[in-house]
Automatic annotation (TrEMBL):
This is GNAT family N-acetyltransferase. Keywords: Acyltransferase, Transferase. The lineage of its organism: Bacteria, Bacillati, Bacillota, Bacilli, Bacillales. Residues 9-165 form the N-acetyltransferase domain. The keyword Acyltransferase applies. Its EC number is 2.3.-.-. InterPro entries: Acyl_CoA_acyltransferase, GNAT_dom, N-acetyltransferase. GO terms for molecular function: acyltransferase activity. It comes from Cytobacillus spartinae. It is an enzyme of class 2 (transferase).
Amino acid sequence: MKVVETDRLLLRWMEKTDAPFILELLNDPSWLKFLGDREIRTIEQSEGYISSILAMYEKLGFGLYLVELKEDKIPIGICGLLKRESLEYADIGFAYTTQFHRKGYGFEAALATLDYAKNVLRLKKVVAITSEKNHNSAKLLEKIGMAYSRRVLLPHDKEELKLFSINF
């Protein structure tokens, strides 16, 4: 199901058939460096990861969306909204395979996701978390209008994360 369309991108609900790409993404060097190893090594495990996203769609009406190039339907990453028990508000998350970094896709998808959160989902506030070392994500969050709030330590994490937020 299509969620958001931009000039160059289509954000849509994930499907089980996206498992090969999700397997690639979750084992991309930048994912492993900044988001951690989810120990997803097989298509079946990737399908399980997608099942958790599908359950979020069912429960909340939103989740992480597959981002693909509109023109040729090539998947390049994920961007969307999560609702973690440890955070009061929904948070925006995104990740792209390394070959699609630094092309403006992350900005384009994140800005469209915030617009969707505000105008379709009618959320009043969205937050984001990022590793202290992930300077590019922090810059992108600021570029889409989010402001650094404070550091947070989420349950089961060893490292404090930077928390950003935006009010609508």
